[in-house]
Amino acid sequence: MDDSKALFDYWHDRVHLKNYELIADTQHVPTQKLRHECTNYDELWRSLEVQRLGEPERSRVIAIIKYECTAKVLQNRAGRLRDRAHELEVACHEQDQQKFKLLALVNALREKLFGKDKEIKRLEARIASLEAENEAFRSEAENSKAEAELRTELENLQKKYHAVEKRRQELAKNNQSLGGRVAHTKRYKQQRDEAIALTQQQKQQIAMLVLESQRLRQENERLYQKLNQLER
Question: Is residue 194 assigned to a domain?
């Protein structure tokens, strides 16, 4: 074991690693803790093979064991951390790619949404325009209907007016004829009243004559009886 390289190689081959989770821990781990908990350092320097050596050879071998254990665990940790860093870099790159894809998708969706919003606004404007046109058509239809109803009402009023005018003219003719009849009736009534009055007057005269005739007959009978008495 006088050859230094051979001595380093000898103890290098006898170093074993363990507790790989602690070795791969991304948090800071002290070198001393890695050496004691992640290698067989304590087993090697306490072995009979080392303890049988005399000084200063034993201290030299323990130093070589310490170096080999420390170097091996740190190299393994560095490799694991590099692999982890590479994995994180790949994951970060994948996340960037995914983020880029998501951003592209979001932009596409945003464009579609904005396009939909524009289309919706265009359709809403078209609907408003159609509603305004429909309202205008409905108003025109109502105006046309109202105009037709008004025209019909005017025609009916004109017909009624002509009928009333015709009836008025007929009544005027009837009134004129009736006026003649009334005048004739008045003359007839006057003549009738005069005849009735004359008849009443004649009846009164006849009644007076009857009374006078009765009085004269009674007087005549009285005188006749008196004459008969004188003849006896």
Answer: no
